[in-house]
């Protein structure tokens, strides 16, 4: 049977190529859409009938016949430097006379669709089955497209190679061309908001590839770099697509969803105050997985909360972040103050006469605002001035106790003794 020849425009081919998946580069290789995407090289492309027409069992499965009146090809866009696997299945039409042989030729084409170099594959295969039976075609070599060859398409052509003329030939189905090593997304699949995220595709030649990234929700929204870096400002799941091209026509596309998450900064109490020598507890914060650092940036995280040393007075700052999944928050400082107060004073005089005030010179020191307590040792009310003066009512030796404290409170105590002398007696002689 003979049928009209159908043609397909290059525009349609490009649109179809964009929709290809990494598993299949040939369009309509199952002939489910009849002759679509195939070009006749002799009279016709006979791909109108189900396999039952030729002795098969499925009335729903359209197939193609290769004979002296039906020979055809398809031009498939490919990437230079990559290897491809061509496969199909075939059966001799049972009513054909004798064995049936079909030729498969794979010819490289340049950007002008001119043949470039010798065919990359040129094989014959034969079937002798007497009942309809699809079996895989074996012996097809790996199709290697040389890098730098200028080849941008492969013409996959099927012709009858049976001696003599016959319109009863080979039935073929499930023609497939796929990458030997499938292009696979190799970048990050999880990231955090406002975090530089590397995108990439593995199993590709090192040169001759053109990239068209579409980065949903990201910055940038598109890129032509091989390994772009993107960021996202909001959480969610975003699709990423990359169309792979040879510079003339799109070949394949790779898709992957990327999950963008965030994590809140930990809640901390800062500063943490201790007194010199006080027993310290591990630092604490509220979060999912806390990471502790000794620096605001860089450094190595510890999952164990640090225990501050109180052996020396001073200020130390730790930094803590909150982590969840692949995300880590910014670091929050936690400042620890180890305070020490010194109680020290000296009197104006250690020995004074009764009725004279004792003046106290305050030499206290500390890290924060200080409070004062004075016990003058004579059962009089205590004082809270920084540097009081006190007058004793009677002679004797008195212990002055001084306590100083800060807001922590840390405190220190000291004391001295003063002697109050009675006034000397006055002897008067009257003459």
Which key features would you list for this structure?
5-stranded antiparallel beta sheet, mainly beta, Immunoglobulin-like, rod-shaped, 42% strand, Jelly Rolls, 431 residues, disordered N terminus
Description:
- The chain is an all-beta fold and about 425 residues long.
- The protein has four domains: about 10-180, Galactose-binding domain-like (Jelly Rolls, Sandwich); about 185-260, Immunoglobulins (Immunoglobulin-like), CATH 2.60.40.10; about 265-340, Immunoglobulin-like (Sandwich); about 345-420, Immunoglobulins (Immunoglobulin-like).
- It has one helix and 34 strands.
- The chain has a five-stranded antiparallel β-sheet, with no helix packed on it. Strands 2, 4, 7, 8 and 10 form a five-stranded antiparallel β-sheet that branches.
- Strand 33 and strand 34 (about 410-420) form a beta hairpin.
- Mean pLDDT is about 90; it is low at about 1-20.
Strand order of the biggest β-sheet:
1-3-9-5-6
Runs with pLDDT <50, length 5+? 1-22
Q: What is the name of the CATH class of the largest domain? A: Mainly Beta
Number of helices: 1
Briefly characterize the structure.
The protein is mainly beta. It has one helix at about 10-20; strands at about 40, 65, 70-75, 85-90, 100-110, 120-125, 135, 145, 155-160, 170-180, 185, 190, 195-200, 200, 210-215, 220, 220-225, 230, 235-245, 250-260, 265-270, 270-275, 285, 290-295, 315-325, 325-330, 330-340, 345, 350-355, 355-360, 370-375, 390, 395-405, 410-420. The model is unreliable at about 1-20 (pLDDT under 50).
């Amino acid at each position: 049977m003979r049928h009209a020849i159908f043609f397909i425009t290059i525009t349609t081919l490009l649109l179809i190529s964009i929709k290809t998946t990494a598993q299949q580069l040939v369009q309509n290789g199952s002939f489910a859409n009849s002759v679509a995407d195939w070009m006749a090289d002799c009279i016709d492309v006979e791909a109108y009938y189900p396999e039952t027409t030729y002795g098969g069992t499925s009335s729903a499965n359209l197939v193609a016949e290769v004979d002296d009146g039906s020979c055809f090809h398809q031009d498939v866009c490919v990437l230079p430097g990559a290897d491809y696997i061509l496969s199909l299945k075939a059966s001799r039409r049972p009513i054909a006379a004798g064995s049936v042989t079909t030729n498969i030729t794979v010819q490289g084409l340049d950007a002008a669709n001119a043949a470039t170099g010798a065919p990359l594959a040129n094989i014959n295969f034969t079937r002798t089955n007497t009942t309809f039976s699809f079996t895989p075609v074996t012996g097809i070599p790996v199709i290697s497209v040389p890098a730098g060859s200028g080849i941008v398409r492969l013409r996959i052509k099927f012709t009858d190679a049976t001696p003599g003329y016959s319109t009863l030939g080979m039935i073929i189905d499930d023609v497939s061309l796929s990458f030997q090593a499938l292009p696979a997304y190799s970048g990050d699949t999880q990231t955090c908001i406002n975090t530089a995220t590397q995108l990439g595709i593995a199993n590709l030649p090192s040169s001759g590839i053109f990239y068209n990234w579409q980065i949903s929700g990201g910055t940038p929204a598109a890129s032509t770099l091989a390994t772009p870096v993107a960021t996202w400002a909001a959480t969610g799941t975003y699709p990423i697509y990359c169309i792979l091209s040879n510079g003339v026509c799109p070949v394949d596309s790779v898709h992957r969803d990327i999950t963008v998450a965030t994590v809140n900064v930990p809640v901390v109490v800062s500063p943490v105050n201790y007194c010199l020598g006080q027993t310290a507890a591990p630092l604490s914060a509220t979060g999912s997985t806390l990471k502790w650092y000794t620096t605001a940036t860089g450094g190595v995280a510890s999952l164990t909360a640090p225990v501050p040393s109180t052996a020396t007075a001073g200020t130390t700052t730790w930094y803590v972040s909150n982590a969840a999944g692949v995300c880590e928050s910014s670091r929050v400082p936690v400042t620890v103050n180890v305070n020490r107060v010194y109680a020290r004073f000296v009197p104006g005089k250690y020995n004074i006469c009764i009725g004279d005030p004792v003046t106290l010179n305050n030499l206290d020191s500390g890290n924060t605002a200080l409070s004062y307590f004075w016990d003058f040792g004579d059962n009089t009310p205590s004082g809270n001035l920084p540097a009081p003066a006190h007058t004793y009512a009677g002679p004797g030796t008195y212990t002055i106790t001084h306590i100083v404290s800060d807001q922590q409170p840390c405190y220190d105590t000291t004391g001295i003794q003063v002697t109050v002398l009675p006034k000397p007696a006055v002897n008067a002689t009257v003459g």
